[in-house]
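Human: I'm a chemist; would you kindly supply sequence and C-alpha cells for a protein?

Assistant:
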Amino acid sequence: MSIKAVLVDFDQTLFDTKQARQLWHQDKPDWNRIISYVPHFRLYNGWRWVLSFFDNMPWGIVSRNVKQLISPTLQRNGLKFNPVITRYGENGRERVSLSKTALFEQALKHTEFADLKREEVLFVGDQATDVIQANSFGFLSAAAYWGTLEPDKLAQTQPTFRLSTPLDLFNVLLNN
C-alpha cells in the first residue's frame, strides 16, 4: 500500500465549524450569516505541520459544504488545496447536491490525481458515511476522531486508519 495523494473533508476534519453547523441545517440557511463565521473557524492543531511536511504530495478537499464558505476559510488561513470539490461540484454550478461518489470522481479528473489508482488515494473524514463511501469507492480511508460529532457511529466503521489527532496522519503518510 502506497499513499500518493490525500483528499480531506472540510467540516470537523480540517476545520472546527461547529459554531455554524446548526445554521446550515435549517430549511432556508442564511448563508450571509453562516459566512460571517469564517473568521472563527479554527484549523485543528497539527494540520499546518502535516501539510507543510508533505507539501510535495497532492492534497485536495472533497466536502458536502459549499465553496462560498470553504474558499474564504482557506484563504484566511493561507492554505491551498487543489482540487476543492464541494456539494454542487467543482465549479458550484450543479443545481442539485451531488453524492460523495460523484465528488470523488471529479477529484480524480484533476491532473494531480488522474494517474493514480484509487487505492493510492487516502480520504480523511470525521463521519461514518465518509469512511463507508471512501471504502466503497476504493480509496483508503482514515477516521478523524478529533472533530467527529458522531464517535459511536465512526467507531463502527472499517477505516483503513483510525486517527486521534491530525498529527497521527504524519505517521500514516511517512510509513505508507
Summary: The longest helix spans residues 67-76.
